[in-house]
Amino acid sequence: MGRKEQRRRSARREKNRAVWLGLGLFGLVGWSVAVPTLLGTALGVWVDQRFPSRYSWTLMGLILGVAGGCLIAWYWVKREGRRDE
Fold it and tell me: What is the pTM of this model?
């Protein structure tokens, strides 16, 4: 029996587990993007209040937070994908 067939049979036996695992991963990805975004934005607001400049540190913090969060989420999705193989 091939590896692919074994995974297929295992998935059929553990249907409920797969649903909860998917929802958990969905939540993990959401938090992985949300937390760095909020932290980057908060840091940007703080820098803008303390050190006024012609550049918006709030916007830069937002962009860097989203980019960092996406990288973290990508890492987790890749990790879970490798675990399934």
Answer: 0.68
